[in-house]
Amino acid sequence: MELHKSSNLLNHNQQLRLYHAFMINCFVLNSYNYEPVSPNLVNYPE
Q: What are phi and psi of 14, to 5 degrees?
């Protein structure tokens, strides 16, 4: 029973990790597509 619960927890953590990676990818793609100014902001300190 305990092993089954821990494997469910591991599966849940993997799903959260995939979900976070997906959200980060969407955020990065959106910022590149809709805010062409962002590379200038990254290169600002000179």
A: -65, -40
Where exactly are the structural domains of the chain? 2-42
Among candidates 20, 21, 19, 39, which has minimal Cα distance to 31? 39
Report which residue type is found at 39.
P
Contact 17, 10 (CB under 8 A): no
Tell me the per-residue pLDDT of 1-46, one tens digit each, with 9 for 90 and over.
Answer: 566 676 777 778 888 888 888 888 777 776 666 555 555 555 555 5
> Which residue in the block uniquely carries the two structure tokens 């995939």?
18
Q: Are 38 and 32 within 8 A, CB to CB?
A: yes
